[in-house]
Design a protein that fits this description.
Length: 144
Amino acid sequence: MGKINNYTVVAVKPGDKIICSDADTGDTKNITAQEIIDLERSSNIYRAYLTQASNTAPVATLIPGNTITGSWVYDGTGTYIFTSIGAFANVNAGCIVGVTAAQDTTFEFYIYDDDSVILNTYAAGVMTNGLMTGLYVEIVTHTN
């Protein structure tokens, strides 16, 4: 392993390149600081703690910093719809659902259309209400 003993540090200027690696191919690429900022801004996030009982819409306690806004409705036993107009059009989306203490509880998330996602809740394989008590939910979208 080599040791760098002496090097000069100069101020960064617009257009300077940063060396990075393509996550898919491993190819080495150059990117500017502005391109990194633009890439980060192409992602949007919704984070909240959800609580739901009986046959009501989940109540969301929002975590600061959300760039996606919307509302939850109850659609039927164990089915909840989050709507945010246009938030899911032409994007890749992912959802993180926090761990629950209830055994045999599962959560299913999918994009329904350009404006909404569906969250289904199951207890022992059966769609069930009332499984969200401060359940952490994070939805992240990234524009291609």
